[in-house]
Amino acid sequence: MSEAVAERVSEDFRRLYGTGPEGVWAAPGRVNLIGEHTDYNDGFVMPFALPHTAVAAVSRRTDGVLRLHSGDVEGGPVELAVPELAPGSDHGWTAYPAGVVWALREAGHEITGADVHLSSTVPAGAGLSSSAALEVVVALALNDLFALGLGGLRLARLCRRAENVYVGAPTGIMDQTAAACCAEGHAMLLDTRDLTRRQLPFDLAAEGMRLLVVDTQVKHAHSDGEYGNRRAGCERGAALLGVDTLRDIPYGDLDALLARLGGEEEVRRLVRHVVTENHRVETVAALLESGTTRAIGPVLVEGHASLRDDFRVSCPELDLVVDTAVRAGALGARMTGGGFGGSAIVLIEAADADTVTKAVVEAFAAAGFATPRVFTAAPSPGARRLA
Ligand code: GAF
């Protein structure tokens, strides 16, 4: 399968640029099992990699030219001058790969140019981290070709810098770390404060379960103001409570501290979400480690309610997936990713897949919503070289 993908993408590269690439790499999209809007508060997250990947065929150049092409976007290669790459100069899809080249150079790594052809199966704008997959696959390719010797975490940090500074989206580090470091058959518990991580067993097929991803087809964008507003609200909460970040608030102290926030109703809700969400990540980690995977279902549902009512990043389509799936017998469900549209995840007994899918699709039709795209997500490998 990977061989066939590598061959196809190499062939496309050859047609575009006249010779074959020096190599082919892949980086996955992700689903976040639990731990939402915690990463920019130094908290815990638990993503796993999707089977869907961004694939890059890449060759080095020595003349300072960066040529970027995507098989998923109309038009020929875009040609950029590496020394002239600058934050804010590019607002299309090329900002992600170009931002990585910029971030590598800013960190002192010599990148003398490259020809890049990309092709991705990660649905765009679906909250499944298609942009981080693009960033990480390009970073890994350049790391190998220019012998930079950078590990997965270092690459993830540089990709986040590309996203924050070059693209201008104020995200945390979850998505880039997930693309770079996730492991097949596992969910990754990541402490975003120091980037320590533990791979937790999450082999649902072996336990007779499945995880469905429901892409509501409602498009989201992180660079718009809502994500940044939530982030600013969290920072205000930390400042009001006299801590560096909301991560520093122990779950046991939450009620007492919330009482200190007086008339700051919105900040109080944001703080409550982040502190309880960090606690939910720890609960889910303990359940997965003790082999009681089914018991995570109610924790996922609680997490959704907190994102809907306290953090206010859900939308009617995401709420409908969760409510319908749970009523149809799912073990648990929640929105995943930044929200304001995008995807929900639904944990089910494998035998219930058809019933739950049908219930969700029918509920969407009855509500007059676009037909959702539903697929099963098995925890898949992180970024790697294919050829
Ligand atoms: C988006 C961001 F990119 C992540 O950093 C994270 O904050 C997530 O939203 C919410 O958990 O995917």
TrEMBL record:
Query: Which EC number(s) does the record attach to this protein?
Result: 2.7.1.6
- Is Signal included in the keywords of this UniProt record? no
- Residue ranges of the GHMP kinase N-terminal domain? 96-181
Please give the catalytic activity noted in the UniProt record. Answer: alpha-D-galactose + ATP = alpha-D-galactose 1-phosphate + ADP + H(+)
The UniProt record lists the keyword Protein transport: no
Q: Where is the Galactokinase N-terminal domain?
A: 11-60
GO biological process entries: galactose metabolic process
Q: Where does substrate bind?
A: 36-39, 227
Top enzyme class: transferase
Instruction: Show the active-site residues.
Output: 175 (proton acceptor)
Residues that bind ATP: 70, 125-131
What is its pathway? Carbohydrate metabolism; galactose metabolism
Q: Which UniProt keywords apply?
A: ATP-binding, Carbohydrate metabolism, Cytoplasm, Galactose metabolism, Kinase, Magnesium, Metal-binding, Nucleotide-binding, Transferase
Q: Which family does it belong to?
A: Belongs to the GHMP kinase family. GalK subfamily.
Q: Which HAMAP family match?
A: Galactokinase (MF_00246)
| Protein name stated in the entry | Galactokinase
Origin organism is Streptomyces tirandamycinicus
